[in-house]
Amino acid sequence: xxxxxxxVFIIDDDASVRRSLGxxxxxxxxxxxxxASVDEFRARxxxxxxGCIVADMTMLGTSSLDLGHMLKAADSNLPVIFVTAQDTEExxxxxxxxxxxxxxxxxxxxxxxxxxxxxxxxxxxxTQPA
Length: 130
Hints:
It is built from five helices and five strands. By secondary structure, the chain is of the alpha/beta class.
């Protein structure tokens, strides 16, 4: 049986971070698509795609924290791994509340991030009863 091809959706307003994470994903053997904002992701990507989202928590426009609510409203099972330079207990709590599958402080340990992404691929979310 053919294996499902997953995509890592990178959402970060810093172009150099998007390029860097894109190279990391390619080196790890993952397909990736980068977006400069949550709004751009929402306009161009499918919430029903197979993969994982890696999103910066602090961006202009629609908040990355709102992404969890949008995904839930769309009945999407895409997990979100948050990255941030603002590592406080409040930020961690907000990420948990938004349904984070992972949380990393910038600069990101890329091997740990790759491992977390692979974990989300190996352990997909199951639809929870309402």
